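sorry for the late reply, my laptop died twice this morning and i had to redo everyting from scratch. anyway the thing you sent over, i finally got around to it. pasting the sequence first so we're on the same page, its 215 residues, then the predicted structure underneath. double check i copied it right bc i was rushing
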Amino acid sequence: MEGNTPDGTGPMHVPFGHIVANEKWRGSQLAQGMQGKIKLVFEDGLTPVDFYLSSRSCILYITEADLVAGNGYRKRLVRVRNSSKLQGIVVVEKTQMSEQYFAAVQKFTVLDLGMVLLPVASQTEASCLIIQLVQEQTKEPSKNPFLRKKRALISEPALLRTVQQIPGVGKVKAPLLLQRFPSIQQLSNASIQELEPVVGQSVAQHIHAFFTRAR
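ok and here's the structure:
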């Protein structure tokens, strides 16, 4: 396995359809939730990254304990954000215990750093979301409109819950959005003009602002 740069923010060679995981996650509920559904390769020395989805796309995972412990997680996010070689997605455990800290991490991640933040309720939910992200990155573009339609209508519960967390979306508009934009990548890249016919102008602006990289 090719290593990355000394500061841990360089590209990592990730075999097709695999996830390269930080050794610290071995035996965790999160890793167990992915095993059998996708191939995991554990590596030492991946700090600050938790999971590589591809050579240039990675997951930074913030646990409930990380949030409660203070702002120590911020250094990891800044290191990846400042790397020109990596695109980081931040996954945060939003639980009853950590909810009071969520607004602060959301502001820091989305507004200050301009990174994508995806909230999850548990590591089990996170494992479903990460698998879905990998599948979106690795699947071949299909020219079959029936397959595309089927994929759009049947959304992962974790993905649905994540989209519901976007300001202004909620339980009614989330399924409509996922029918039109069946992946986080497609939704985050959608313009206000593309979003408006689905959710209206006001919510479209909320969604676009949520995903737009800070300049």
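Residues 11 and 55 are 5 Å apart (CA to CA).
thats about all i looked at so far, will dig more tmrw
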